[in-house]
Write a sequence for this structure.
């Protein structure tokens, strides 16, 4: 949970630095991203919501393959948390919660973005994003100067020296810093008029209308609300939760007491969250309805930074075990922190549009439990038998978006591979344990008893693996179809199978085929596609 208290955003410069890193986004990457989005739809992974009614902005549905991939991601996280750690247990709390919870958590008062409308285009923007985009333009100019000089001077180029001494770079830098300073101050002071004035002073125009005909800047709370109960009984305003974490905090005592949990211990939860994002873009990266996997780890006061370091490392290891490429991850440590946190970092992943946050790890002190104690009037403390004292536990939170994780896995697995024969195949190199279908079982032809034989193999495997029987089209087309949805293995039953009980097994990535006895297929699959093998890398 990273409260969108915009003070915190400005202080950390978090969004700005993210945007700076995105300036390398070029046309090729944009094209690639479009292809990935189209592929997700064409192959039943992700559909726009309510499509026959022209869609619903920033809401998506997961199709027949998408739901399998998503479930496998969730299973990987859930088992890594609750099965590999004896001191972490699960929870499934309701989406609706007592409205005071969101007062205590700070969301009612501070979960805001500053928004501004352009009167001509009638388009709405986040004022902070408009200004950050302007800052990013200066960074872009600086980087272009540096790239030009690097090309000119070749090996002898000293980038650091150039950045520090080149007059043009220095001029851009000083303008950039001036703008950034003004912007940070406005955000820190929550000065809405000043934000608007910056937009006017820097001639920031609406990208659609091209005009500066801006409204005032207003605060916009990102929580969705609805009414609970019929009017005759009197109704109550309730919120759709903007994060799953508060369900964990308010159940801290229930779980601790009934599970007889001893500190340190954790509570893990996977569930839907809702945020009325003003600028929703980049496909499933920023959605209005999304899913989170959050774990709150309760520790003794004073020990939180040790645990923060441990979770930071543990979570990165979880990501890297998928084998998507270690160079695609980096930490983004927050230098300045929200008032309730004493350490925070993001795990960023290299998306087609740059490094982006996939997971946040936060040391949240005793802020949440302490506030719930205050607002509910109920004592929320833990008696530590070793210390013989009661205290409000400190919390380390790991919070990851399922959909962002899905996007990182999906996008980095996508390849348009040029083959030796000049053809191109589209292949999803999904980590095998996450693949929607583990193996496709194919009769070479639809006669001579081969379909029956293939079906026998399906029936033998289906209790342990998600397999698919596939007999339509030529074998080549069937291979391509399975490559496109990331199926790690294709198993073909042919005439020789009837004679000696062997089948061919084709590997998705290498396209190599080998003959093995049909009776060995299960053990090959077990070794290559089971979640167990992935989980073993974590211990
Ligand atoms: P951002 O700065 O990108 O808005 P955040 O810092 O507000 O993210 P958190 O509140 O820390 O995000 O939420 C934890 C995780 O939930 C994020 O790391 C991300 O993976 C996911 N998440 C947050 N907002 C969205 C969204 N609108 N759509 C999809 N996933 C989201």
């Amino acid at each position: 949970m990273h409260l969108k208290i915009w003070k915190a955003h400005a202080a950390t410069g978090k969004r700005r630095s993210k945007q700076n890193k995105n300036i390398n986004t070029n046309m090729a990457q944009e094209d690639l991203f479009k292809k990935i989005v189209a592929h997700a739809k064409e192959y039943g992974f992700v559909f726009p919501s309510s499509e026959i009614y022209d869609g619903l902005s920033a809401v998506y549905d997961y199709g027949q393959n998408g739901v399998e991939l998503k479930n496998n991601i969730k299973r990987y996280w859930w088992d890594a948390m609750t099965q590999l750690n004896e001191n972490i247990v699960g929870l499934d709390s309701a989406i609706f919660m007592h409205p005071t919870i969101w007062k205590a958590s700070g969301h009612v008062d501070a979960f805001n973005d500053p928004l501004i409308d352009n009167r001509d285009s009638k388009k709405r923007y986040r004022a902070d994003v408009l200004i950050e985009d302007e800052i990013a333009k200066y960074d872009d100019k600086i980087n272009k100067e540096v790239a030009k000089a690097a090309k000119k001077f070749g090996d002898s180029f000293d980038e650091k020296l150039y950045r520090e001494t080149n007059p043009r770079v220095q001029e851009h830098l000083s303008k950039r810093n001036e703008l950034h300073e003004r912007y940070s101050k406005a955000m820190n002071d929550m000065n809405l008029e000043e934000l608007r004035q910056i937009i006017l002073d820097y001639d920031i125009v609406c990208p659609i209308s091209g005009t500066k005909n801006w409204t005032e800047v207003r605060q916009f709370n990102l929580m969705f609300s609805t009414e609970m109960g019929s009017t005759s009984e009197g109704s109550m305003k309730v919120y759709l939760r903007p994060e799953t974490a508060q369900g964990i905090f308010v159940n801290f005592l229930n779980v601790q007491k009934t599970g007889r949990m001893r500190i340190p211990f954790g509570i893990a939860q996977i569930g839907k969250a809702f945020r009325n994002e003003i600028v929703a873009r980049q496909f499933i990266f920023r959605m209005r309805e999304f899913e989170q996997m959050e774990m709150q780890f309760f520790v003794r006061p004073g020990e939180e930074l040790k645990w923060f370091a441990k979770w930071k490392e543990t979570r990165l290891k979880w990501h890297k075990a998928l084998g998507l490429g270690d160079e695609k991850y980096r930490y983004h440590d927050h230098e300045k922190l929200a008032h309730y946190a004493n350490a925070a970092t993001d795990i960023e992943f290299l998306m087609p549009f740059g490094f982006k946050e996939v997971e946040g790890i936060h040391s949240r002190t005793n802020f949440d439990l302490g506030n719930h104690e205050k607002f509910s009037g109920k004592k929320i403390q833990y008696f530590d038998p070793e210390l013989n004292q009661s205290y409000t536990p400190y919390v380390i939170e790991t919070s990851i978006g399922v959909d962002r994780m899905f996007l990182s896995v999906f996008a980095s697995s996508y390849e348009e591979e040029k083959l030796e024969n000049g053809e191109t195949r589209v292949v999803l190199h999904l980590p095998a344990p996450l693949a929607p279908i583990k193996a496709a079982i194919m009769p070479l032809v639809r006669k001579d008893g081969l379909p029956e034989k293939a079906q026998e193999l399906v029936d033998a495997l289906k209790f342990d693996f998600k397999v698919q029987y596939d007999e339509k089209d030529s074998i080549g087309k069937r291979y391509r179809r399975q490559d496109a949805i990331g199926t790690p293995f294709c198993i073909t039953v042919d005439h020789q199978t009837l004679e000696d009980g062997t089948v061919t097994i084709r590997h998705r990535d290498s396209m190599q085929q080998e003959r093995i006895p049909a009776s060995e297929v299960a053990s090959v699959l077990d070794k290559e596609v089971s979640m167990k093998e992935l989980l073993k890398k974590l211990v």
